Amino acid sequence: xxxxxxxxxxxxxxxxxxxxxxxxxxxxxxxxxxxxxxxxxxxxxxxxxxxxxxxxxxxxxxxxxxxxxxxxxxxxxxxxxxxxxxxxxxxxxxxxxxxxxxxxxxxxxxxxxxxxxxxxxxxxxxxxxxxxxxxxxxxxxxx
Length: 143
Prior knowledge:
The chain is mainly α. It has 6 helices and no strands.
């Protein structure tokens, strides 16, 4: 039941974020090629359709912002964190699917696993911040 509520909160956060900040359209900004630490993710993302890549990037960035702004501490352990990220990405960007881009999904999952770890534990503040940082960097690498 708690996980269902967490997914609902994630969905509500995405809706509020989009309502407040909107979704950028037709921005003619030329950005340099990604040159950060997540090159494996960046290279995997090059196989994606540009609209899908942009959407996933924005969904990951929004998830990072929502997690950073979780003042009520709704996400308390690493299992809830995983559920939150999956829910935010799925709710915020419905055309991305594991089956459509398995290499990208695997690369993103591996990076998050490296940050959060494979064992369910209490979500420490430093792990939460590292996850926010990782989500933001994943957004940049995929964009």
